[in-house]
Design brief:
The protein is built from nine helices and five strands. It is an alpha+beta fold. It has two domains: 111 residues, Zincin-like (2-Layer Sandwich); 130 residues, no CATH class. Strand 4 and strand 5 form a beta hairpin.
């Protein structure tokens, strides 16, 4: 069974085209023989400084050593993580700054997976959807934090690309507003996390995608339905700053908020 985490800038779970070879690079991500490989090396190089400043994500890249690929056919996706085989796939058709933002988002998903903070088959379908919301809200908030830090260090391009993406403009605006008012990174990350939930359309799209994925996994694996729930410990493990600190988060629909 392939566990695929889909970037929240897209909808749809089907994507094909990255299967090793010339469109991929492996650790230490420093050399590539083809034009596509060189582009991937450049993307990793562009985000290395922010990964060094936020050690947890830099550490997961070094520890998990994912293969990083371009996909020739990626459907509606901009990127995704194939967690069980350690592969991050990006759309080559996007502008470079957006590709870098997508990479940061998917690297956060890899961090989640490495900590066991991903939806489990033992969850009920509703709880699987709740967990999907949380990991997408977290990855969106943290990738904005990293892009903001890149902007503060002289490279605004990734922030501008993420902030301009239509499905996430409101999340970026909420993050920026909080940072400009408070200068508090964890507080701005919390604000962005909860803003993810503020769009009924976004929640509906992701719930449908999560339910489809849940049912597909049940069918493929012939799993007996189980009805476990996610608890507070799920959010305690998930909502960690990429420098090792914490930020406040919970499911707002369960009665917790900003």
């Amino acid at each position: 069974m392939r566990n695929r985490l889909i970037l929240s800038f897209l909808l749809g779970l089907a994507a094909t085209g990255a299967r090793g070879g010339a469109a991929c690079i492996g650790a230490p991500y420093q050399a590539g023989g083809t034009e596509a490989q060189r582009e991937l090396v450049e993307i990793v190089g562009e985000v290395r400084p922010v990964l060094d400043r936020f050690g947890d994500l830099g550490a997961v890249l070094e520890r998990e050593t994912p293969e990083i690929c371009f996909a020739s056919r990626i459907g509606p996706a901009l990127g995704y993580l194939e967690a069980d085989i350690g592969r991050i796939v990006l759309s080559r058709a996007q502008p470079r700054p957006l590709q870098a933002g997508i990479f940061l988002h998917e690297l956060r998903h890899l961090w989640q997976f490495s900590r066991g903070s991903c939806p489990r088959d033992a969850l009920s379908m509703k709880e699987y959807g709740r967990a999907t919301f949380a990991i997408e809200a977290d990855a969106s908030a943290v990738s904005l934090l990293l892009a903001w830090d890149m902007k503060a260090h002289g490279d605004p391009s990734v922030w501008e690309a993420l902030a301009a993406w239509p499905s996430h403009q409101d999340i970026a605006a909420r993050f920026a507003e909080t940072m400009e008012e408070t200068g508090d990174g964890p507080l701005a990350t919390t604000a962005a996390f909860y803003q993810w939930y503020a769009s009924p359309e976004r929640r509906e799209r992701y719930y449908r995608a999560a339910c489809s994925d849940y049912l597909d996994r049940q069918d493929r694996s012939h799993l007996i339905p189980r009805y476990q729930a996610i608890g507070a410990e799920f959010f305690e493990s998930l909502c960690r700053m990429p420098d090792g600190g914490v930020y406040s988060c919970a499911d707002p629909e369960a009665g917790a908020g900003e």
